[in-house]
Amino acid sequence: MLFARILGMATLSMAFVPPHLPSYLNRREVSINSWDYPAFTIKIPIDHYNGSDTRTFKNRYWVNDQYYKPGGPVFYFDAGEQNARPLVPYFLYDAAGPSSPLTLARRFGGIALIFEHRFYGDVDSGSLPFVTNKDGYAIDGYEAYKYLNTEQSLQDPVYFAHNFEPPGLEPYWSLLNPKYTPWIWLGGSYPGIRGAHMRVRNPETFYAAWASSAPTEAAVDYWQYYAQAERSMTRNCSADYTAITNYVDNVLANGTMAEQRSLKLALYTAVESGTGGQVPAFVNTTTAESLTNQQVASYLRLPLSYYQYYGFAASIAPFCDIMETFNDTRSRTTDNGGTSKALASESGIALTHNITAAWSAFLTGIAETDYDGIPYTGNDPTQNYSWTWQYCSEYGYYQRGNPDNEHTIESRYTSLDYFQANCNETFPFPEGLPSTPNVAAVNKYGGWHINPSNIMFSSGEYDPWRALSPTSIETGSPNRTSTQYIPQCNVPPSNDTVFGILYKDAVHVSDMRALLNTSDINHQNFSTVGFSSPVSPEHFYAGVSLFESALEEWLPCFGNGSYGQELMRQY
Questions:
Q1: CATH T-level topology, domain 10-217+445-570
Q2: ∠358-327-362 over CA atoms, to 5°?
Q3: What is the tens place of the pLDDT at every residue in 23-58?
């Protein structure tokens, strides 16, 4: 529906561009095998800021021009800190449900594409500037990872947009330049941060952006991460979780060797046992004794592992339900006067009975919760090291408990020093990591206060990353108000507001697509689709509808005004 604005290209604007779905795929049955969608590559400089360094690497991207009409926008979906390939069927071809890139491309006659971040992707074919070992670790060490930073990574999409020459669209290569075609950024979480940065850093390249669940404020000490989980928990479960955490911390700090040995063995047995009480042969006293205090702390937060994507009801509630209805062999009167299975009071088991009963209930909850039934977000080899380097060097996000809150559910053994020690151990380069992450390199774009024009921020009410987003309500944040009032094109909203949506009861990145086909085999295990919250149709349709309305307001201002004239003709 949108047409060319360049003089002399009127004949091109009327030409029909055929869809470029891989010819061997049935259009009616979209393949969910990501290998069925071959990637294109572009050679990108390893170092954008050293003219004498001519080295390049191949960066992968995927394109769907199925709905493209010359002059239509380019909808750029940023894959961020993960392998982009598994996302392709779902964000470019709407496998299992509609996605933001393809929905918007259909609506505005545009191109949808996915771009892979440098240092991520398959070990043998990803967007890797340097050779990695089979575990995804760059063999050249610091001489490789020093090129994985905010500025180099932000310049990649800029270079890509200005050199975008997709096979099959040769007649339109000049037209697709950001000078003549609006490029629209789409991304959630870290890619959402990047989209916000791009609207500050390179507004001439990316004309608009939708940033979902974007924690734009980098912070070394991110104790607020678990605050959202604490707020969403039932009172009895929260009370017992706090009591157990304090109990374990006290035993580790002040208990006898025998008490520490007993605690570690009990916890390790619960973690490694399957439902029904089957204990693997490798679980023994010697193995349990070797656990560090930090490893014990990590086991304590196991029930919180999936909260980011699935919220309380799907991730923590199953554990709480088991723990809080645990009968410690002492029958007590239920609400209806009977003597059936005990019902936990709002005060929790620790206060109603004692810490020994609560510890037994906690261990039962750990052992009997079927974590295998919760789709796993997964990692790939390069992701493990590349993202670790990024947060160790610049982003921080060290997720410990609040040391000033005696009711925290996070062990005090998960400390800032613990995170920094892990970083230094993973990247032991003499010239490498700063003593603490250089968050100033990120926050120079605005952090909490970031406020460019032509951008929509969406957030989940209980997203643990909301605390660092522009919609944060945490102490120290500007406490801006989220509004659905669309700002004028190229005009930022007032500094005390954020244009976008705050989804009630939602968590992390729940709106970039909608999951309609729940029988999709890949959605039985989310390791194949990367960032995939319980993708809510309600959140998706609300978000994409508001962003469509925003683009209707903003796109007419692109270029010299003729773009808006063509836009109005199509409506």
A1: Rossmann fold (3.40.50)
A2: 30
A3: 434 444 677 788 788 999 999 999 999 999 999 999
